[in-house]
Amino acid sequence: MNVNDDAVVVKGGLGPEGDKVEKGNGGSTNVLVEDCTAGSVRSVLKIKTNDRRGGFVRGVTVRNVKVRHTDAVFGVAYDGFRWKYPDFELRDTPIEDILLENVSVHNARDGIVVPPRPQLPPKNVVLRDITIDRACGDRIRMPDATGVAVDRLVVREPGVPRTGVVFDRLENAGRYAALSPNFAKAIAFLARPDLYDLKPGRYAID
Predict the structure, then answer these.
(1) Beta-strand (E) ranges in 85-182?
(2) Are 126 and 100 in contact (CB under 8 A)?
(3) 165: exposed, middle or buried (Cβ count in 10 Å: 0-12, 13-18, 19+)
């Protein structure tokens, strides 16, 4: 698989004929993609909604995927067809129960891109065990992480394949404390119950 646009697409609408007569939109649910190898694709998984036509995206699992190049490993785009239905009432599209796991990408422009949507944020989106050899843009662009959990995202630096940056949740910090005494001290500081009460400034950890 080697394309410069959509590779495999699941759409909840009825196509051009449906656009003429229907104001509502179907949904996409119970989608499983696994054990795939791709060359160059726009995204490993991208969810693009049309918030003028409602619908829903639920129960999508993508796992065990290897990709040579992608613009973004995971991305969300809200109301991607606003221009097409300017007079229809706004119907936000729920995005729920999404799992992306065990993904290996050689080269990515961005890692995870999720714009904010306060009125209806994603729910139960889990991005787990993702490795990117090279990311030239944003590793994570997610101003509001509500509803999205990132668990073990490793981004390696160009030309240094054995090192990198690990993104994980603080509750999993114990996995890394044994790697170095300095890690243990830093993690203990981040786990302080009064961390958010501290005034801006410098604090001695060691």
Answers:
(1) 95-113, 123-135, 140-141, 148-157, 160-167
(2) yes
(3) middle
Contacts of 49 (CB under 8 A, 6+ apart): 55, 57, 76, 77, 78, 79, 80, 92, 93, 95
Spatial contact of 88 and 52, defined as CB atoms under 8 Å apart: yes
Q: Give the number of C-alpha atoms closer than 13 A to the C-alpha of residue 41, restricted to the C-beta side.
A: 23
Could you report the per-residue pLDDT of 156-195, keeping only the tens digit for each? 765 444 444 566 667 777 777 776 778 888 888 888 888 8
Q: Which two tokens stand for residue 61?
A: 């699992």
Residue 12 is classified by DSSP as -
In this structure, what is the dihedral angle of CA atoms 3, 139, 32, 76, given to the nearest 10 degrees? -80
d(CA 51, CA 90): 6
Residues 101 and 63: their CA atoms lie apart, in Å, by 5
What are the tokens at 182? 């300095």
pTM of the prediction?
Answer: 0.69
CA dist 48 and 75 (Å) reads: 8
Cα 8 to Cα 4, 69, 134, 179: the distances in Å are 12, 16, 24, 41
